[in-house]
């Protein structure tokens, strides 16, 4: 077995790892849309697109939350530098998911969109998660980080709420085959359990803040 | 003089595809060299074979039938869509699972029994399914509870003819249906998770007046040929004014009864799937609107194929069956 130091991620590796992430995230997305536009995505390409992009966004979100524990366990500090990129791709998929829903499923029926957001809790939950990911994406730049200062971290802690909402959105959306969403919910729970101390602190802090007001 | 009043759901003259065009369509495809069992299965099975699944696909055969004289009010959903986009949880919960998992399904020998409160119960074997009653084509809209729809040229005979033959007793008020139970052939029945949590065998039911309504069809084929297994071979129910899940597939037993029979989806989630399951744009599913539907047409992704859902899926002639009933309560 190679010694751990040989496997150590070095700064000059980052370029290649990032390139692989770009390809691994973009290629399936482009290919699936190409298949959909050429009507080669099964009987109903619309549903297939929604499932692919939705699940893709969730998988990438999970992956981005896996980075911190992985970096710690594997003692690979540099992994943290991949977190933003993976998070951004998670939103790219989420964006494609929402855009496909509006364009191809609802076909720009805005009143239907509005009534579905109001009437269907699982859509409401999904939209809130999407808005959180949008906010995180818009503030993902170094500039935004400097500008927001301390507030930046508290804003980006909302990712924990987003991942819970996404797992609920998935579970709630299926008709009866709940095994798959339950597996994702379990993974989400494990990721949050790993951060239980941090979450406890955040919870106490926000509780104190509300009492002070 | 014979005065005909066309039903509102009937096709208008100018919407009808000319018969010659409809019949030539297959010849055109054939002449282009596209026909062959594998091409009919389309991309899904092509992908399956890419990954080394060389099993021979299920073979359908041409049927003798009387063509639908009224033809269609809208364009037919392409055959490839109808046979690759299926809900048949016995073969998996994904839309393309059935076409991938059902190709080895054995439909011959088959036995369909008609029993229960009848003077003359009987059963049909595989060949009887196609010979006992004259076969006719019926072009029906199929509306899935998931808010998508298709237009399918079914071939079959009316359920009423079969029930009449069994001479039902006056005490028979309902008709119960059962799908084949064979976990060896149906992975969804073997494993609770693979089968979407449904208690198998799949069961369905109709009130007897719904069952003998002239629109209610027992289908043995589509697009001129016997049914592929993913669509419910060798024989399935088609109730065009109800959501698709009422149209039980691969039926082995039809039982006349005096009690309202349990139905699979109603047992699983009674607040979401009622016994009647009539297509009704004013009663939403808890998680989506039923006011409109997406017609699966084979058109491009940008096609405007979202259409308003019609009460009883447009088959207004069944409305008298529900006179005086609260269809919000009896959904």
TrEMBL record, chain A:
It comes from Paraglaciecola mesophila. Keywords: Cell membrane, Electron transport, Flavoprotein, FMN, Heme, Iron, Membrane, Metal-binding, Transmembrane, Transmembrane helix, Transport. It is found in: Cell membrane; Membrane. The keyword Lyase does not apply. This is Protein-methionine-sulfoxide reductase heme-binding subunit MsrQ. It comes from the Bacteria. The chain crosses the membrane at residues 15-34, 54-74, 86-103, 123-142, 154-172, 178-194. One of its GO terms (biological process) is protein repair. Heterodimer of a catalytic subunit (MsrP) and a heme-binding subunit (MsrQ).
Automatic annotation (TrEMBL), chain B:
GO terms for biological process: protein repair. It comes from the Bacteria. It catalyses: L-methionyl-[protein] + a quinone + H2O = L-methionyl-(R)-S-oxide-[protein] + a quinol; L-methionyl-[protein] + a quinone + H2O = L-methionyl-(S)-S-oxide-[protein] + a quinol. Mo-molybdopterin binds at residues 86, 89-90, 144, 179, 231, 236, 247-249. Residues 104-265 form the Oxidoreductase molybdopterin-binding domain. Binds 1 Mo-molybdopterin (Mo-MPT) cofactor per subunit. Its EC number is 1.8.5.-. Belongs to the MsrP family. This is Protein-methionine-sulfoxide reductase catalytic subunit MsrP.
